Amino acid sequence: TFRTAAGAPLRLSVNGGVTSTLTATIAPNATLEISPGDPPESAVTGWAEVRGAGALSGYAVYRYGSAETAAPLQTAGAALTLPFDNTGGNETTVGLANSGADEGSLTVTIWDDAGTQLGAPVVLIGASGHVDFSVGALLPAAAGKRGTLRVQGAVTGIALRVHPSGTLAALPPL
Q: Cα–Cα–Cα angle for 26, 28, 33, nearest 5°?
C-alpha cells in the first residue's frame, strides 16, 4: 500500500497502471520489481507498506536527479538507531514511517561521534503516516557533525546522506 505523509492512500503510476495498492504473489526464491511510471509534475512524499504471509526481504531504491542508492526493507521495532554524517558539506536526511493505527510523538536522541548527547527533540507522526527531516535542521547542534540518533517508537526509517555534488548514500539502521 502506498501512503501519503498523512497516511492517506497515495495513487501512483507503477508497473503500467495507477494504483494505491499493489497485490502480487512472489514464488520462493523469486523477485518482484515495482517500478514507477512517468514522474509526477511535482515532488511526491510518502511511503510504501509491504505485507506478506511469509518471510520477505528486499531493497528500496532512492533516486535524486541522476544519483541513486539502495537500502534494505525493514520491520518496525521498539526503537530505531541510525547514523548521520553532516561533515564536509554532507547533509543527512531521515525518513520515518508509522504503520500503526495511532499517531505519536517520537523522541529523537542525537549523539555526536564522541558519544556526547546533543539533544532530544520530539517529532510528531500521524497514524499510518510519514515524516522526514534534515538532522541539522531538526537539531542545529548536529550541523557539521557526525554521530548517531535513536528514535523511540515503533517506526521504520532510513537515513540518506546527500553530498554537495548530489550523490546519495543510504545509511541503514545500526
A: 40
